[in-house]
Amino acid sequence: MKLFFLGLDGTTFDLLDPLMQEKRMPKLEEIISRGTRAALETTIPPITPTAWVSLVTGKNPGKHGILEFLLRRSGSMQDIPINQSLRDAAAIWDILSAQGYKVIVTNMPVTYPPTPINGIMISDFLTPRGKHDFAYPEGILKEIEERFGPYRLYITEVYAPGNVDRVLDQLFDELEYKTRVTEYLLRNHPWDAFFTHIWSTDRCQHELWHLWDKSHPMSSNREIERHYDRVMQFWKAVDDAVSSMYQAAGASETLLMIASDHGFGPIHKFLCFNVWLLEEGLLVLKRNALTRLKRLMFKLGLTPELGYRLSMKLGLAKIRLAAGVTNRSSLFRIINKLMLSLEDVDWSRTLAYSKGNYGQLFINLKGREPYGTVEPGLQYERVVSSVIEKLRKLVDPATGQKLIGEIWRREELYTGPHTEEAPDISFLPADMRYKPMGTLDLSSNRFITDVYGNSGDHRMNGLFIAAGPRIKSGLKLEHARIIDLAPSMLYLLDQPIPEDMDGKVLTEMIEEEYLHSTAIRYCNVSSNDRYRADLDEQDSREVCERLKSLGYL
Fold this sequence. Notes:
Layout: E1 2-8, H1 13-21, H2 26-33, E2 35-41, H3 48-57, H4 61-64, E3 70-72, E4 79-81, H5 92-98, E5 103-106, E6 119-122, E7 135-136, H6 140-148, H7 164-188, E8 193-198, H8 200-208, H9 221-248, E9 254-259, E10 263-266, E11 269-271, H10 273-280, H11 289-299, H12 304-313, H13 325-338, E12 352-354, E13 360-363, H14 378-392, E14 404-409, H15 410-413, E15 425-429, E16 434-436, E17 448-450, E18 456-459, E19 461-467, E20 475-481, H16 485-492, E21 497-498, H17 512-517, E22 522-523, H18 537-549
């Protein structure tokens, strides 16, 4: 039996169910009616690299080590972009390839640099610009580009008033290009298992959520009237693409799995937790003249937020995507020198800081942090407990509503050798329309600010759809986790499951006949000796600035 896996980044039944009810996605609705569906619980934090790597490895981030878009070098505050060589676990395509399966992997996040497999691998949008080593084996990229033109690795257009059509042009282009390439590979190269990914579904919701959500603070009746129909046409094109790829894969004879890395919803407010830590006295600034001057400018409103709001009003928002790594990197370095940032922190008096998406706090721990002040053991526990207690008391002063929902210590979320690298405290907002913005250091001089830039952002439940041989029809699972998909795929292909996978087989969706005839088998874990391939400084800067431009950092 063949397996075709399609990743539709960021898709959610919260959006697709209404579209199916309106008959805008009839083909997807028909596929679901013949299979199983479930809301898919994602990782903490609910972000692209962490979630996708958890999906394809069946392991929690404490085991595979991809905890964010950026990983910090040990003993320093320097961040490096993640890449496939930093993934400390075998992906399902590695396992199948080792068992003799012909495997094709295209566009799946965190696959640069590509690794030799028994088949084809084409990397993802985290490939540094200008690189042409993102495809294996040699010659496959030339074969594709001779037929379809330059490979579409990147989406660069972002929302600004007057730029919606350009955003949509690129979304349609990425979807069409990758659909055509997928169909070509399905029909012209041997495969037993095929894994591919569409990114435009995620970018559409990040940039354009307010074009179908009239309750959004960025929503404009004029923009909705002008662009709504074309946005709906994009989702109709997604429906057509899913059906077209499934047919090319062999439809009813092939096991189909569709999944997303997280869900989506509107974002109304940003929370800058380094501002909160400053206000609480947990993060302390230097006392030198330059930092005092920057603090004064900060209080007067000279912040990255002000710069971006002005650029949008002047129609210059796209400047953040302008070509040229050196110029962009130099600009950001200058901004960090001129504006208040973590470079101005007095670490000798600081207990905690924020860095990362969706609520991540680090204790300034002695022996781990380069300038740590908090002693391991009793003092560490006291600081963690104190910070958690302060988080629980946080409210929005405008509404009186509680701001923070669930809070976890790292050991409550993660197990494995990379747990020590995880945030000491992770949390989610009580209302996910509020997004913590820790990665931006000090993006604003206010803790709570109105949304700007992206109007949509991630939620904890993505989607999962399975159809084809061995899958029950018309079933709606109550619950599934993103780490359950890899072991489920292996079992459905009658392959043993590595015993250190954290996920379980979703037996509820599998036909009884197969369950009775095929035992779930486990195998010992082999060593995962991977080539470590840190990007050079220029490539690292380019990837970081592109992630910033897209709103991920």
